[in-house]
Amino acid sequence: MILKSLNQKTMKRIFYTLAISAFIAGTGLTSCRSSAKKVEVAQENVDQANMELNQALKDSIQQFRTESELRISKYEKNIADFKLRIAKEKKENRSKYDEKLAELDRRNSELKMKLADYKYEARAKWESFKVKYNQDMDDLGKSFDDLTVKKDK
Questions:
Q1: Terminus-to-terminus CA distance in the chain, angstroms?
Q2: pLDDT (tens digit, 9 = 90+) per residue, 34-85?
């Protein structure tokens, strides 16, 4: 009888130990799967955000190209219009303006080529390119404005 009682106690202890161990292991595995699933969902969110960021950057680059091409076209038209206006000038004045217009036209063409040849490498390089390009475009516009203001005086 003592042996049976001892055997039952041992069996109960083993059973409870196994039950608790199984519960702990199950909880641990469930938690791991849940964490793994959370990581997977978070990675999907990061991937989606990166795709959206890349698309926004591509859209920004395309918008910049479009706006810059419009400015270049405007400058080309302004140069052509100014050439027509100075055609009526004296020959010595006309040659001075023709030289300056040729320089402006050359700079405009360089900017056009610079924009067409630009290949995206990294966001920092893009931002740097954009700042420098806008500065060059503004300088060209100012040079043209200075030339036309002098002409009108």
A1: 125
A2: 677 777 887 888 888 888 888 888 888 899 999 999 999 999 999 888 888 8
Amino acid at 58: K
The length of the chain is 153
Locate 20 and state its tokens: 């608790």
d(CA 86, CA 103): 16
Q: What is the DSSP string of the chain?
A: -HHHHHHHHHHHHHHHHHHHHHHHHHHHHHHHHHHHHHHHHHHHHHHHHHHHHHHHHHHHHHHHHHHHHHHHHHHHHHHHHHHHHHTTS-HHHHHHHHHHHHHHHHHHHHHHHHHHH-----HHHHHHHHHHHHHHHHHHHHHHHHHHHHHH-
